[in-house]
Write a structure and sequence with these properties.
The protein is α/β, with parallel strands linked by helices and 147 residues long. It contains 5 helices and 7 strands.
Length: 147
């Protein structure tokens, strides 16, 4: 098996020779998207500790416990959505410098610009192919690990 459970249903460590494993938090209400994202991370760089939250409220609770190196966030979620989460993350001095990558189906350039103005580090469209998803994570995680 390629993962080791760290807590019930919410996280695991992907094993590899990655020089500096990061703690990654994925907040998305779509279980199929989460499954694809975690599979892509497994292929791209399986050395990272990956955690998931299926809603914004759970994601906020996990922030305090995990102190993630990177947050990947879906915008359109019921309840506490991505728009509100970005505001809360950026308002907290403990997390205001943590990169937040928005993964959105939106192709609207103005909306994407707004995400960045609100504090997202980057805004990426959810791709239509698994290969593209792997490339996105390869680029994002490589960039984050640069000194």
């Amino acid at each position: 098996m390629w993962c080791e459970a760290l807590s019930v249903g919410s996280g695991f460590t992907l094993r590899s020779g990655s020089p500096e494993p990061m703690t990654l938090l994925f907040i998305d209400d779509d279980p199929e998207d989460i499954e694809l994202i975690l599979e892509a991370i497994k292929i791209v760089d399986p050395g990272h500790r990956c955690f998931t939250a299926t809603n914004g409220a759970d994601g906020m609770k996990m922030l305090d416990v995990l102190k993630p190196d990177y947050i990947f966030l879906d915008i359109n979620m019921p309840g506490l959505g991505g728009w509100d989460l970005i505001k809360l993350i950026r308002a907290n001095p403990e997390f205001d410098k943590v990169p937040v990558c928005i993964l959105s189906t939106s192709q609207n350039a103005k909306e994407r610009e707004m995400f960045v103005r609100m504090g997202a580090s980057t805004c990426l469209s959810k791709p239509s192919s698994f290969h593209e998803l792997c490339e996105i994570f390869r680029n994002v995680l490589t960039e984050k690990q640069k000194p």
